[in-house]
Amino acid sequence: MLRFTPILLAILYGLVVYHFSVWRTRKELDAKSTELADPRLIEVTSRLAKALDLPRIRVHIYEIEPVNGLAAPDGRIFITRGFYDKFRKGEVSAEEMGSVIAHELGHVALGHSRRRMIDFSGQNALRTALGLMLSRLIPGIGMLIASGLTSLLAARLSRSDEYEADAYAAALLTKAGIGTAPQKSLFRKLAALTGSRGSAPAWLMSHPKTDARIAAIDKLEAGWVEKDRLR
To answer: In Å, how far from its chain's centre is CA 88?
Structure first.
């Protein structure tokens, strides 16, 4: 029984971290966000809502500067103040912002936002349990190895989620009559908008590389065309 104590403690730790993370995230978002009221973006979200047969889609502005979109575990959609400011300056179009919202809607619809929070807790539990075991075999560096392995796992899972959310957004944007062109053009802008140089290897990045994301959408659209041709 004592042999399994570290694993049981790690699982308990993961559960505690999960509940604390959900509480902290909700509190942070509640304190630093307001509902989006920009008529140009509401026009776009109305088109997305109509395509989903929904009365409306609520989007909130999260008052932080980094350029990003966010799907909260409770299903709410956020764009950051930094991203919205890029839109107001004309660096990002309304349709491109719509592609961000569609992407985050994909994370919600596919269960990514809640699963990511669970994955985060599970990864912490796995890191702790694996680190304790490896530290017995490789004193001094066991925890470092465990941290590296779980980080690689987290990046791989995150990239898979991004591809799935991209595909959802592409289908939604097409159904809404917006198309995927704004989605692809935004991908090409993201590195400049976020200040990323793209120097990290693809397998270490939480998001796929731009060319790979665009290629995946092109392949998806080619499949739709082929299906239509065969009907």
So the answer is: 23
Residue with tokens 């559960």: 15
pLDDT tens, residue by residue, 175-231: 999 999 999 999 999 878 876 544 444 434 556 788 899 999 999 999 898 887 777
Rounded to the nearest 10 degrees, how much is the dihedral formed by the CA atoms of 202, 155, 106, 223?
Answer: 40
pLDDT of residue 79: 92
pLDDT in tens, 62-84: 998 988 888 887 889 999 999 99
Listed by start position, the domains of the chain span 2-230
Say which residues have a Cβ less than 8 Å from residue 28's Cβ, sequence separation at least 6: none
Q: How far apart are CA 86 and CA 66, in angstroms?
A: 11
Please give the Cα distance from 177 to 180 (Å, whole number): 9
Helix (H, G, I), strand (E, B) or coil at 59: strand
Helix or strand or coil: residue 80?
strand
Looking up tokens 């991004």, which residue turns up?
A: 162
